[in-house]
Write a structure and sequence with these properties.
The structure is a single chain. The chain is α+β, with helices and mostly antiparallel strands. The protein has one domain: SH3 type barrels, CATH 2.30.30.30. The strands form 2 sheets. A 7-stranded mixed sheet has the order 2-1-9-3-4-5-8. It is globular.
């Protein structure tokens, strides 16, 4: 199999080809894959179901061992399609703590960071 990203690739039923597309995609396309569902009141407010997640957003974890907790986004990892959250850490065997990476599909945005004017403008757009 070629290890190159194809911009002409449309779709496939095979999960291995879907994973390959995600893994080999360039960063400007991977960024769009980091979209996360909004909470019900934000959906009504902005008439959008999902938004690209950013540092500073307040999110609620919907799946996994930290389900139900709310935290602020500390770091977004584009290459891994994961996010680090404030206070969500895992205990390592040596006793130290490490951030626990969470996939964006397992999160719900409760509050948006609207300090960026471009982001606010894109949300209020049609």
């Amino acid at each position: 199999m070629k290890n190159k990203f194809s911009k002409y690739w449309k779709a496939s039923k095979q999960p291995r080809k879907q994973r390959k597309y995600v893994y080999n995609s360039p960063l400007h396309i991977k960024r769009k894959m980091l979209s996360t569902h909004l909470s019900k009141n934000l959906i009504k407010k902005y008439n959008k179901r999902n938004v690209i997640i950013r540092k500073g957003d307040l999110v609620k974890i919907a799946r996994g061992q930290f389900k139900g907790k709310t935290a602020k986004v500390e770091k977004v990892l584009l290459k891994l399609n994961k996010v680090y959250l404030e206070g969500i850490q895992q205990l390592k065997l040596d006793g130290s703590k490490a951030y626990y990476p969470i996939h964006t599909s397992n999160l719900i945005i409760m509050e948006l960071d609207l300090s960026d004017k471009k982001r606010l403008k894109s949300l209020t757009r049609k």
